[in-house]
Amino acid sequence: METLLNDFSPGLFIMQTILLLVLIALMVKFAWKPIMNAIEDRESGIQDALSAAENAKKEMQNVTADSERLLQEARSEREAMLKEAREIKDKIVADAKEISKVEGDKLIAQAQATIESEKKAAVADIKNQVANLSVEIAEKVIKEQLSNKDKQLKLVEDMLGDIKLN
Amino acid sequence: MRNTFFKKILIVVALVFGAHSFAQEKEHQSNDSQISGDKEVADYILHHIKDSHDFHFFSYTNDANERKHIGFPLPVILWTSNGVTAFMSSEFHHNDDGHVVVEKNGLKFAKIHSKIYELEAGATKVSFDEAHHATNASKVLDFSITKSVFGILLVGLLMLFGFSSLARQYKNNTIPKGLGRVLEPLVIYVRDEIARPNIGEKKYRKFTGYLLTVFFFIWILNLLGLTPLGFNVTGQIAVTAALAIFTLVIYTFSGNKDYWMHMLWMPGVPYLIRPVLAIIELAGAFLIKPFSLLVRLFANISAGHIVVMSLIAIMVTMKESMGAVGSTALSFGLSFFITLIEILVAFLQAYIFTMLSALFIGMAVAEHDHEHTHDEKGHDVPDAEDVRGDFI
User: Fold this and answer.
1) Contact A16/B164, CB-based, under 8 Å?
2) Helical H segments across chain B, by residue range
3) Which tens digit of pLDDT belongs to each residue from B223-245?
4) How far apart are CA A74 and CA A79, in angstroms?
5) CA of B295: how far to CAs of A9, A64, B204, B241, in Å?
6) ipTM over 0.90 threshold
7) Which H helix or E strand runs over A152?
């Protein structure tokens, strides 16, 4: 202890105190302050950049989710549209069938009616012609057979038989 | 560019001091001063541990049997009974036992065991008593640029140069280059591993400047002490005392209300015990803490120097029993190994000093949240817990 105290140099102690004070002051002013500020600025810059990247990532995820959802919506919409179109097509086809059937039936009925009336007209015509022919024949026969009474009778009878046959 | 400028300064400094070099000086009385015996080895080591008034590299004996010393003198500045007196240390001619008396300013000075004494008026020669204490001379206040002060100045300049160049680099780019790339992680290390966890997130900034300065100051000086230049600055008790007192002053003046409350009138303990605790706490804060700081650093560094030098001295003391080659090999192996450990110790002691300073400051400025009560006996408990929490 005595040697320790003997070794203690008050002059060196004072010099060290003064020099250390000066050194601390100079170091703080010229070194530590600018260094600390620069390092902290850099660290906060890095922090900001990291959080910005994190935000961007989240946003990106949101965007992807959005587009995924939109795609899904579009797909289901297309699905619905196709289904609707198919239904409409089926309905149109069914309707058309129905209508054409009705129309056809109507046409057939008309045609039948026309055929019937034509037939009737033709029959009537034939009847008229037959009557005319009969009259003409009868005229001719009458003209020829007016002299022969038997032949006249026989002719009439034949004719009547023909008519019956007809 | 800056590096070459710095080298130029160093060369100029070397030339200025070199002009006074005592390479030319002769010392006749100690032709036999080559170190050989155990006693001389011990004296040499103890002499080295002490501060010195001149910068001595090595000595040798030339062919003419003259002892020559290579080194340069340093200025001696004394506060004497007659005001400030200054001269170069070369005037003592390497004498360290009071035989050479220097007369300056009407006063006479002698150097005994690295201390400068002022002779009483009328005395021409120092006289000693049986215990080899000077009887007619007294110590003066010595503001000399001793070897230690020279080392402090050198390290201060190195630090200012290195770190201000790092600081300047940040003006142009955010990531430093060259030397700055080495220094920046160290600065961040001190901030993040020493200042921040011990002082706390809110207040560490204010004290980081001091802690950084002290850390690098001690570390570089410790490392410088391992070089053959033979600095032993952090092994000077005056230097470590000044450092410890800086820490003491800082934590005493930045201590908050809680700190003083816990020191002087501990809450949560019986009233009768409080004054006793106050005495213990005061002794702890003003004596034990700074004393532990100053002795730890001083003792570790001095011990390191003594061990390394003792191991080197094996070369001399074991020469007879082991032969020159054996003793040299043993000495080299052991001292090499210890020097490696000393490099670790150099960092470790700087770290411990800074770390404890930060811890003491942290205890003084800690904000006590009053949720956890000071149930048992120690108010240190919450502080210690805070620190542990931050370390993980």
Assistant:
1) no
2) 2-19, 38-49, 147-172, 179-189, 196-199, 204-226, 237-253, 257-264, 273-283, 289-317, 319-365, 380-391
3) 999 988 888 899 999 999 999 99
4) 8
5) 15, 66, 26, 8
6) no
7) helix A149-165
Which of the given ranges, A108-112, B5-9, B105-109, has the highest pLDDT on average?
Answer: A108-112
Domain range list for chain B: 2-143, 149-391
Size of interface A-B (CB pairs under 8 A): 119
Name the helix (H) or strand (E) containing A161: helix A149-165
Three-state SS sequence of A25-51 = HHHHHHHHHHHHHHHHHHHHHHHHHHH
Has residue B161 got a pLDDT over 80?
Answer: yes
d(CA B314, CA B324): 10
Domain boundaries, position A37:
10-129
Structure tokens at B49: 């541990």
CA–CA distance, A43 with B170 (Å, rounded to integer) = 13
Cβ-Cβ contacts under 8 Å, A27 against chain B: 159-160, 163, 209, 212-213
Distance CA B104, CA B77 (A): 11
In a domain? residue A151: no
**Cα dist from A19 to A13, A14, B54, B298, whole Å:** 10, 8, 19, 19
Q: What φ, ψ does residue A109 adopt, rounded to 5°?
A: -60, -45
In 3D, which of B46, B12, B43 has the Cα closest to residue B30?
B43
Say yes or no: B236 contacts chain A, CB-CB below 8 A.
Answer: yes
**CA pair distance B58, B56, nearest whole angstrom:** 6
- Residues of chain A with pLDDT below 70 are 1, 145-147, 165-166
In angstroms, the Cα distances linking B122 to B16, B119, B126, B136, B178 are: 36, 8, 11, 10, 61
**Is the confidence at residue B119, as pLDDT, over 70?**
yes
Q: Count other Cβ atoms within 10 Å, centred on residue B187.
A: 21
- The confidence band for B97, taking pLDDT boundaries of 50, 70 and 90, is confident
CA distance, residue A41 to nearest chain B CA (Å): 9
Number of folded domains in chain A?
1
| pLDDT score of B34 more than 70 | no
On whether residue A150 sits in a domain, the answer given is: no
- Whether A165 is in a domain gets the answer no
